[in-house]
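User: My instructor asked us to take a sequence, write out its structure as tokens, and then describe one feature of it. I'm not sure where to start. Here is the sequence I was given:
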Amino acid sequence: MSASIPRRNNIGSIRATLLAVLVSCILPVGTAHAQFPIWPKYRSWWSDHVPSRHKHQHKKSESASKARSNDVSKGPLHIIISIRDQRVSLYDDGALIARSSVSTGVQSHPTPLGVFSVISKERWHRSNIYSAAPMPYMQRITWSGIALHAGVLPGYPASHGCIRLTDSFAIRLWHLTKRGTRVIIARDDVRPLEISNPHLFTSKPKVASDSSESQAATVTGDSITTAATYAPLVSNAATQELTNLQVPGSARSGVITPQKVMPISVFVSRKLSKLFVRQGFTPLLDAPVNILNPQEPLGTHVFTAMKFPNEGAATRWTVVSMPEELPRGAAPQVPFTAKASAALDRIDIPQDAVERISELLTPGSSLIVSDHGISDETGNDTDFIVVTH
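Assistant: Let's start with the prediction itself. The structure tokens for your sequence are:
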């Protein structure tokens, strides 16, 4: 009887030791998860994830099985990556809804800075550049190889230029976005800010068009079904390209079904002194613009038309301004919204172009103002890509 007592004490001691080890393993994870808020509205499926220390293996995960394809955003999405913070922030209709860690490009293969958008998506992809490296839940932002995807996050820049995401965040983001979702990559953290300016476009009531006018570009899911053109401002080649994008058989059926109108993208380049418009990744028109004091920089600003609160309401805009290169810790001398408004005040757009753009304006439409020209990355199947560094 007495001999069994020490044995029981030993068992109790072992159990206590194992429990202490288990607690020590759990606590750091809880601390890491507390670094960023979990927004109550999205608590059911958005949370921050600690960087993965293990090699990613592609398999059907519990997170993937729980991802709901019917999750939709309230308004325009902004995916903003901060290189310095190694962090991605997701904004829905101007409000921050989720944050997570990332790993961007190393010094020899840096992640480019600038304005991008999602141009293609694949649930499972292998790199055709780097030894068929796995890129699960890939969202491409350039055709030259830059993408967001699930991968290893060691806690510092480690990729060949892509933006690596935690597995669960990559899955959720993949289900929420669509082609055209705006992606902004900056040195420091930036965010959408409400802005008003008389030079921003204002949505006009849509009027019915007759057979001599062009139809509005529309989509079903991610596929373009018809296209908008304005003959006075669009070349014949562009018109033909848009016409060729119609779904086969849609005209023959004689049945017209309501479709969602694609947002437009407007790009104003100080370098080129021109304005360009795209819809559904397809060029619509371009026009010269006059810029006051053209030798002075405008900066790079992304204005986005937010969700319209009701029919006939004034258009609500946000702006994301790319920060200037400043010493670390130094605050900008002028607020970003003031600089963005000052840039708009210097741009004179022909009135006929303003009228056409206003007629096409929908929530999610954007105006990009930049000192740079159109990047070589901009192609037939991209939105405007502006590389700032």
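For the description part of your assignment, you could build on this observation: The first strand starts at residue 77 and ends at 82. Try explaining in your own words what that tells you about the chain.
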